[in-house]
Write a structure and sequence with these properties.
With 162 residues, the protein is mainly alpha-helical. It is 78% helix and 0% strand.
């Protein structure tokens, strides 16, 4: 297993993709990335032999979908906007898959936990910049959902190193 310190930085890998869209479009792009993460969690759950892990991984997937739904609810015509945004970043899904591919499942859990922490910080940043109270509430709630998944993944990593 690779040491935690030598694992790549998700922000560095995905930052250039985010920069292709305006700050106003970034939440919708990230919402799409949340759905990609939900797929990853479901794949991990499907491959798990532990009933407890399987259930927890499916719960993480559900949280990712919930984050996407909440963020998308802030935008009228979110689906159309997201489709236009994804034309600017057509390689998001492939980049995400390639980022995780070379690592063991335990390392992928660590990478995803870091991604969840980064997501929480990002939603908090959007909340700070938002002038709309409802949007701030949504972004802060999303941050909390991200942290729940991060805590679970970190607990697995801790369990694996014992």
């Amino acid at each position: 297993m690779t040491s935690q310190a030598s694992l790549p930085d998700l922000a560095q890998a995905l930052g250039p993709l985010l920069q292709r869209v305006s700050i106003e479009e970034q939440p919708l792009l990230i919402a799409y990335a949340e759905r990609l993460a939900a797929e990853r969690y479901r794949s991990w759950a499907d491959g798990s032999t532990s009933a407890a892990w399987k259930a927890a991984l499916f719960a993480c997937a559900d949280r990712e979908e919930e984050i996407a739904r909440r963020v998308e609810s802030l935008y009228p015509a979110a689906a159309a906007l997201q489709k236009a945004i994804l034309k600017k970043v057509p390689d998001l899904a492939a980049t995400s898959r390639a980022f995780f591919a070379p690592y063991t499942i335990e390392e992928q859990f660590l990478l995803q936990a870091r991604g969840e922490r980064l997501g929480a910080a990002t939603w908090r940043s959007f909340a700070k910049r938002s002038t709309e109270a409802h949007a701030r509430e949504v972004f802060l709630a999303c941050a909390g959902l991200e942290e729940q998944s991060a805590a679970f993944l970190e607990s697995i990593a801790t369990e694996q190193t014992k």
